[in-house]
Amino acid sequence: MKKVSLSVHKSNIERRERKQVRSEMTAAAKSMAREQDIVSYAIVGFDRSGNAFTAWDTGKIMPKWAFPGAIGRVLDFDTSTVEDDYVAPLHRTEWPK
């Protein structure tokens, strides 16, 4: 039997997880765009270190100052019916700032 180092195994698992998240994100966006009359959007992604990345467009349906609050309110409502799936890491790779 071939030996596989734990770091290689961990890297493979993380790569598969990242690929799965990207696949789900693009499938959700394509489904919304295909099935709904989407004129405005916000996409927020976080990397493993907690850094945020965004892409958005107000679609000229609301002022820019109102957009973050509207997105937050939608998420407050939408996520209230979903069970939390957060899993704390076994160890921290970076200390909180």
Strand count, sense and closure of the main sheet? Answer: 2 strands, antiparallel
Quaternary state, please? single chain
Order of helices and strands: HEEH
Mean pLDDT: 85
Widest beta sheet: strand line-up = 1-2
> Share of helix among residues?
40-55%
Question: What's the number of extended β-strand segments?
Answer: 2
Low-confidence stretches: none
**Count the helices. How many?**
2
- Specify the structural class: alpha+beta
Shape: elongated
Separation of the first and last Cα atoms: 44 Å
Number of domains: 2
Q: Mind telling me the C-alpha Rg?
A: 18 Å
* Beta-strand fraction estimate: 5-15%
Describe the overall structure:
This protein has 2 domains: 1-36; 39-83, no CATH class. The chain is 44% helix and 12% strand. The protein is built from 2 helices and 2 strands, in the order H-E-E-H. The chain has helices at residues 6-35, 67-79; strands at 41-46, 52-57. Strands 1-2 form a two-stranded antiparallel sheet. The longest helix has 30 residues, at 6-35. It is elongated and about 60 Å long.
Sum up the structure in keywords:
2 strands; elongated; alpha+beta; two-stranded antiparallel ribbon; 2 helices
Layout of secondary structure:
Blueprint: H1 6-35, E1 41-46, E2 52-57, H2 67-79
Antiparallel strand pairs: 1-2
